[in-house]
Amino acid sequence: MREVIGFSGICWWAVLYDPRPSCAGAVTEPRPEYECSPGVHLLFSTGGSSHQAVGIPGPAAIDRIKHVTDSRDAVLRLRRLIVFCVVTVCVITGASFWALQQSGADASVVLDRPPRSEAKLETLSGGITSAVNITRNADAGWLAQAAAQTGIPARALRAYVAAAGATNLASPGCGIGWNTVAAVGFVESRHGAYGGGSLDSAGQASGPVVGPSLDGNGFAAIADTDAGALDGDSRWDRAVGPMQFIPSTWELAGRDGNGDGTADPFNIDDAALSAAGYLCAHGRNLTTNNGWTQAVYSYNQSDTYLVQVRDQATAYAKLTGAIG
To answer: What's the CA gap between 140 and 299, in Å, rounded?
Structure first.
């Protein structure tokens, strides 16, 4: 007579993951008459092919059972530890990701809008209606004084004042100030002086004010949309003109500001009027902090850019006496 210890891994696994004991595959036929219990089964053999279960194992068997059980317990504890660690890492990672998302959402900047600077305007003759931006114009004396105070070229300043006035007439709820239009012009191209250029008496840039290729190298990648007609680049788009419109945007937003029948991004009258209209689009109210912020964001989705425009617009308002 010999004592045989049998171990049913299937029953052990069933107990770990299913509260209902299962004996599937626990022993070979003929099956002894006993209920499956988790862990270890002791079988007694008389040397024949039949087996029967015994209730009490001997000391050696107990030691071996204990060794197997301890090993299984250790594995189980290790598995539980691994699961716990994985779950913990997932929870921490998820929480961190959520926190970053919330932080990013909360970090969306809404700046105090700059004071709206007003120009001293003169109403021109009612018969002069060939261009929308000359229905009201800056008083010549105010224009010369403000140009000297701010350093804005008088020709550019005239375009900014006219653009703001025309846009507010067309969209009374916008409330854009000329100083905001001027601030965008300064940040974008130094009022058309980028690259050593200047504006002539007709408001035309002396040379093509063209930005860098938008090829994804430090800038957004924007493939050519105008076959190079405006920017001279048939592979990638480039921002053009004193207000730096990309060709596809100019196609949608470009307006004729000087009444010559052509919307030209290189002309300061056309470019300024188009920029003011673009900033006031979608019913934005630029007399509110949020409305002003969203308007500038629509022009360039950059916090740095937003601050630059705000600071420059505020400086222009201060220099012209709009605020102390």
So the answer is: 30
Secondary structure (DSSP) of 57-117: --HHHHHHHHHHHHHHHHHHHHHHHHHHHHHHHHHHHHHHHHHHHHHHHHT---PPPPPPP
CA 123 to chain centre: 44
pTM, to two decimals: 0.65
Give me the residue spans of the domains in the chain: 2-106, 121-319
pLDDT tens per residue, range 253-306: 999 999 999 999 999 999 999 999 999 999 999 999 999 999 999 999 999 999
What are the tokens at 114? 């700059």
Least confident residue range of 66-70, 138-142, 171-175? 66-70
Q: Max Cα separation, the chain?
A: 126
> Cα–Cα distances in Å, from 153 out to 2, 106, 281?
109, 39, 27
pLDDT of 197-230, one tens digit each?
999 999 999 988 999 999 999 888 999 999 999 9
Burial of 19 per CB tally in 10 Å (0-12, 13-18, 19+): exposed
Residue with tokens 């809404």: 110
CA torsion sign for 199, 200, 205, 206 is negative
Please state which of the ranges 88-92, 160-164, 187-191, 247-251 shows the lowest mean pLDDT: 88-92
Nearest residue to 322 via CA among 103, 161, 130, 82: 161
Phi, psi angle pair for 13, to nearest 5°: -65, -35
C-alpha torsion 79→82→87→88, nearest 10: 140
Q: Six-digit token pair at 13?
A: 């696994």
